[in-house]
Amino acid sequence: MFTGGAMVNGAILALGIMPYISASIILQLMGAVMPSIARLQQEGEIGRQKIAQYTRYLTLLIGLIQSTMMIYALAITPESLFRGFSEAQYGSLVVTSNMTVFFIVGIILMTTGTMLLTWLGEQITQRGIGNGVSIIITIGIIDQMPGAIAQAYELFFHRTVGAESANLGVPQAIVMLVLLVVVTAGIIMILQAVRKVPVLYAKRMVGRKIMGGQASYLPLKVNYSGVMPIIFASAIMIFPQQIFGEFGITAHNLVYGILIFAFSYFWVSIMFKPLQISDELKRNGGYIPGVRPGEPTAKFLDYSMTRLTFAGAVFLVIIAVLPNILMTYWGIPQKIAYFFGGTGALIAVGVSLDTMRQIETYLLQRHYDGFLKKGRIRGRSVGATRQIIDTRQIKNLWALWTPLLIILIVGVVAWVVRKFALV
Questions:
Q1: Which tens digit of pLDDT belongs to each residue from 243-286?
Q2: d(CA 128, CA 101)
Q3: pLDDT digit string, tens, across residues 135-192
Q4: How far apart are CA 236 and CA 84, in angstroms?
Q5: Between the N and C ends of the chain, which has fewer C-beta atoms within 10 Å?
Q6: How far apart are the C-alpha atoms of 295 and 273, rounded to whole Å?
């Protein structure tokens, strides 16, 4: 319900959080072509608040448009929403004496549901840990995991999913499990992979103090564009889907991969600004060893990011096409193949890593050692750790774990009840 795709259940939150995501992407792209938006992006907290306000307005507009189209499809062309639906066989899907009132109420409810999710995501960000909107999307992705596991069990051990997967058994299940581990490990490595460009800061006199003389590095991410190229390519592939369907899945995957590759460079070209980074380094007295400040530094950063983007784009193509290959050649259902790549796997793994990092930072700020072995502060003695930990803070953690445990129990019970009700 909270993440979209809930039209079948008649949920008022059927649009989900996607209008907000679309609005955020549009404003990010506008920042590359509109100087006024670009200035707001560089004005710190005040600029971010203004952009957040514009994002809400644009979310409202997109929500109104999408809800209107959804209600129209629900009332006039329901076969476009529900595959296999026939009005001649099942009758009209919308039964009402006043279609105008149905349209108005439906549009208001669905748009309000999207704005409610937007507010909820912002509250999670302000009061919780991590990006609230990303966490909502991740919950929607992980929500499909129990059903996918049950379907995978039926597929590999009972072979009751379809004739195209009749040859799948225990050996193939082991291969799929290993593949899942490899894909997840690959996503983690590529999301965290950076090239550390060394940066030195010259010494300078500020008042009576000597500042600078430090060595640092500039992290250049291998996968700088994240999941945006896959989202753009998927949106474009919707329009000529019928055309590529005539040429087969191979042509579809080929064009899909080319679009992802192209959009990877496109996103980096508008979001990564080597000249601006070079100017900031020069202003702060920093320089890259062996590279002159100014334009040569900008060219060096652009050249380095171009090479890194190539590796990141190849990885995105492999991850995006892998579910299609599993569905086509192995007969794996879409619900199972969904966790072996694509946007869902990238978002789930990326948000989980980011949330763990923020929790680790929070624990370290609260004088805990953290829950990750590599995240412990080095050089701190055991005695010092015991002295600075407040035992009252540990006891107060029940206020966090109790509601989380209740939500987990309610979710498991609801899923089991729905599962047996469908059976």
A1: 555 556 777 788 888 888 888 888 888 888 888 888 888 887 78
A2: 39
A3: 888 888 888 888 888 888 877 776 655 545 556 677 878 888 888 888 888 888 888 8
A4: 25
A5: C
A6: 12
The average confidence (pLDDT) of the chain is: 77
Find where tokens 């991969």 sit. Answer: 257
3-class SS letters over the chain: CCCCCCHHHCCCCCCCCHHHHHHHHHHHHHHHHCHHHHHHHCCHHHHHHHHHHHHHHHHHHHHHHHHHHHHHHHHCCHHHCCCCCCHHHHCCCCCCCCHHHHHHHHHHHHHHHHHHHHHHHHHHHHHCCCCHHHHHHHHHHHCCHHHHHHHHHHHHHHCCCCHHHCCCCHHHHHHHHHHHHHHHHHHHHHHHCEEEEEEEECCEEECCEEECCCEEEEEEECCCCCCHHHHHHHHHHCCCHHHHHCCCHHHHHHHHHHHHHHHHHHHHHHHCCHHHHHHHHHHCCEECCCCCCCHHHHHHHHHHHHHHHHHHHHHHHHHHHHHHHHHHHCCCCHHHHHHHCHHHHHHHHHHHHHHHHHHHHHHHHCCCCCCCHHHCCCCCCHHHHHHHCCHHHHHCCHHHHHHHHHHHHHHHHHHHHHHHHHC
Question: What H or E segment, with its residue span, contains residue 329?
Answer: helix 295-329
Go through the chain and tell me how many residues it has. Answer: 423
Side chain identity at residue 362, one-letter code: Y
Computed from CA positions of residues 15, 16, 21, 24, in that sequence, does the dihedral angle turn out positive or negative?
Answer: positive
The tokens describing 131, both together, are 């990006």
What is the phi/psi pair of residue 197, to 5°? -85, 120
**CB contact at 8 A, 136 and 17:** yes
pLDDT above 90 covers a percentage of the chain that reads 5
Domain 144-372 sits in CATH 1.10.3370.10:
yes
Q: What are the tens digits of pLDDT across the range 359-382?
A: 777 777 666 555 555 544 443 444
Query: Where do the structural domains in the chain lie, given as residue ranges?
Result: 1-79+95-129, 144-372
CA distance 94 to 61: 25
Quick one: average pLDDT of 71-81?
81
Inter-CA distances, 55 with 28, 36, 49, 128, 302, Å: 10, 15, 10, 21, 30
Give the separation between CA 289 and CA 201, rounded to whole angstroms. 10
Tell me the two tokens of residue 65: 């448009």
pLDDT at 58: 93
What is the per-residue pLDDT for 61?
94
Task: Provide mean pLDDT across the span 347-360.
Answer: 82
